[in-house]
Write a structure and sequence with these properties.
By secondary structure, this protein is an alpha+beta fold. The protein contains five helices and nine strands; from the N terminus they run βββααβββαβαβαβ. Strands 7-8-3-6-9 form a five-stranded mixed sheet, sandwiched between helices. Strands 1-2 form a two-stranded antiparallel sheet. The N terminus is likely disordered. It is globular. About 30% of the residues lie in helices and about 25% in strands.
Length: about 160
């Protein structure tokens, strides 16, 4: 390997080689309940990760541009790993994420019946954290902390 440096996000990168795999010090992970239908899994994942970039701007990369100069929105600068587990696994992961103080997004079963952001927030606000009927969570943090939060979950397949 050539000269290695760490960029501003503490990623290991090789100078001048854009194709070198990067090992991130942090992890973005989504944990979905395994009894969701396909459309629900996709919808919940999209909603959950949408909050991370707004409070953690460091997880968002630079805007894209094609060879013709057409601009595109920036995206996460690291992979989003998607896991699944039973209701108990999601509930336990939520408790561990909250206890560890990790940035966490939640999606409850009630949100499938709401139609806009204000109603979504009201549905979550109406229930105590230990009674939330969670169908998914998203977390971001140090790799080892996120791994501990996700204990018992499996990669989505």
């Amino acid at each position: 390997m050539g000269d290695e440096t760490k960029n501003q996000n503490n990623e290991q990168v090789e100078s001048g080689d854009a194709d070198v795999p990067v090992r991130f010090d942090t992890k973005i992970a989504v944990l979905l309940r395994d009894d969701l239908e396909t459309w629900q899994r996709l919808n919940v994942t999209a909603f959950l990760v949408s909050g991370l970039g707004t409070v953690l701007p460091e997880v968002v990369g630079e805007p894209y541009q094609d060879a013709d100069g057409t601009p595109y929105l920036p995206m996460f600068r690291q992979p989003v790993l998607v896991f699944e587990g039973g209701k108990e696994a999601v509930t336990a992961a939520h408790e561990r994420a909250v206890r560890r103080g990790l940035p966490t997004a939640v999606f409850t079963s009630d949100l499938f019946g709401t139609g806009h952001d204000r109603a979504n927030r009201a549905a979550v606000a109406a229930v105590g954290k230990d009674q939330l009927d969670l169908v998914g969570i998203a977390v971001h943090g140090p790799r080892n902390s996120v791994d501990k939060v996700l204990k018992g979950a499996r990669m989505h397949g």
